[in-house]
Amino acid sequence: MPRRTKIIATLGPATDPVEVIDEMLAAGLDVARLNLSHDTHERHRQRAALIRERALAAGQEIAILLDLQGPKIRIGRFKDGPIELAKGDRFIIDVNCPLDAGERERVGTTYPGLADDVRHGDTLLLDDGAIELWVDAVEEGRILCQVITGGPLSNNKGINKKGGGLSAPALTDKDREDIRFAAEIQADYLAVSFVRNGDDVRLARELFYAAGGHGGIVAKIERAEALANIDDIIQAADAIMVARGDLGVEIGDAELPAAQKRLISRARELNSVAITATQMMQSMIEHPIPTRAEVFDVANAVLDGTDAVMLSAESSIGKNPVKVIEALDRICLEAEKSVTRSGHRLNSVFGRVDEAIAMAAMYTANHLGVKAIAALTETGSTVKWMSRISSGIPIYGLTRSVATQRKIRLFRGVYPVFFDVVSTDIHEVNSKVIDELLRRGTVQDGDLVIITKGDRSGVEGQTNIMKIMRVGEHRILNED
Ligand SMILES: Nc1ncnc2c1ncn2[C@@H]1O[C@H](COP(=O)(O)OP(=O)(O)OP(=O)(O)O)[C@@H](O)[C@H]1O
Ligand SMILES: CC(=O)C(=O)O
Ligand SMILES: [K+]
Ligand SMILES: [Mg+2]
């Protein structure tokens, strides 16, 4: 059985050699992430072109996920290099301090509204929580703090408010420019950082489509506020990412496991897709094998029902960008063996014919015991519905659309297949579908397969047929 959970890896300096790209693809990479917090458009353009070219050379389509920087609030820079803060010290974050004029006592910030968002008694976390500041008072743009946890502090480190509540809008001017870039390189997914609500997602989509983009929107859940608006966000987006780095700083690391489980299961309930991200294989930046804790983390995300697991620094700047994908591959495959069938949507009412066919196919597949499901799909919605149901049966999405092939590569248990048969003869189409599965070695004579499709091919939302066929018999039928 092929691995169901999908692997996303961030591209960076460590993945630039073409042989590394080839090996990552061979190891089973599904989605390449470009992080716009780093590097130039030119660099990202080259990376996108190279990986698409090498994927095609290997006979596959890969999805590209472009991750916006978002309003990551940062401190400015220090005039004389890093400073050292000790517990009990006084320190000021001053919105009026020029960005390059930081000193031992005070530093500027990239977010001029910061002083309006914090008050006496708040806690600010710098550098992903390494430094903790208690806000004593706010006076004319100067946030007067006392150091609770000290340490070294260098240029441009991030600032989060414990418990959330920083109101910076999700899209900065840089993000708006980056969205045009995403449209230009035809990103398959656009990941929007620090969304607060559904409106942030809808605005990003509007800008992306207006710039000529077509891909899906991934809402990154990394603010406390997003948790309060989660249904609105899930419904506005095509997928969510549990962005555990920033989310952990906002809500507290101990809250993360429960939040991850809730987010993934809510996404599935609402027929959406979930990505689990950050520090999954952190030790493999340096080491050739993961820690036991990392093995458990990945396996638990699989058991939680995640569609994909994501690598950041592990691949982009790590020493083992290929080995880390191989490790994810084997851990996911093994964890998938202990996933049980869900009773998901057993009691729900379906609003659409194609949705009902998708559900009927999964119910039948799980209870009759078929070898594979082949769904002829234009936009991928049929296979998305199918893949929300836990199952060990592979779902092949057969489509002529390159964009759909790339998009559905993110969905758990779904495998894109290029298929471009135009025929009014139903037997001929069915038989070509089965021949395609035979060619891939996923079925053999005697196996049962389910085929779903519409009366009229090439029209979206038209799936209205479910056919159960036995491999081998398709040849006899064809001769009638
Ligand atoms: N393309 C790249 N070039 C150089 N370094 C990178 C690149 N991508 C990631 N990194 C490194 O890997 C680390 C983790 O990257 P990651 O993609 O997780 O950042 P992130 O969580 O999106 O946060 P941010 O948006 O602040 O970068 C970064 O801090 C950076 O040091
Ligand atoms: C991925 C990301 O942005 C985070 O974990 O914060
Ligand atoms: K980012
Ligand atoms: Mg983040």
From TrEMBL:
Residue ranges annotated for the Pyruvate kinase barrel domain, each copy included = 3-324
Biological pathway: Carbohydrate degradation; glycolysis; pyruvate from D-glyceraldehyde 3-phosphate: step 5/5
EC number(s) stated in the UniProt entry for this protein: 2.7.1.40
Q: Which Gene3D superfamilies match?
A: Phosphoenolpyruvate-binding domains (3.20.20.60), PK beta-barrel domain-like (2.40.33.10), Pyruvate kinase, C-terminal domain (3.40.1380.20)
Signal sequence, renumbered to the chain: none
- Keyword Magnesium annotated: yes
The UniProt keyword set, sorted, is:
ATP-binding, Glycolysis, Kinase, Magnesium, Metal-binding, Nucleotide-binding, Pyruvate, Transferase
Catalysis: reaction(s): pyruvate + ATP = phosphoenolpyruvate + ADP + H(+)
Q: Which residues form the Pyruvate kinase C-terminal domain?
A: 355-469
Q: Which InterPro entries match?
A: Pyr_Knase, Pyrv/PenolPyrv_kinase-like_dom, Pyrv_kinase-like_dom_sf, Pyrv_Knase-like_insert_dom_sf, Pyrv_Knase_brl, Pyrv_Knase_C, Pyrv_Knase_C_sf, Pyrv_Knase_insert_dom_sf
The Gene Ontology terms for molecular function here are: ATP binding; kinase activity; magnesium ion binding; potassium ion binding; pyruvate kinase activity
Pfam family of this protein, just one? PK_C
Q: Does the keyword Protein transport apply?
A: no
SUPFAM superfamilies noted in UniProt: Phosphoenolpyruvate/pyruvate domain (SSF51621), PK beta-barrel domain-like (SSF50800), PK C-terminal domain-like (SSF52935)
Q: Which family does it belong to?
A: Belongs to the pyruvate kinase family.
What name does this protein carry? Pyruvate kinase
Q: Which gene encodes it?
A: pyk
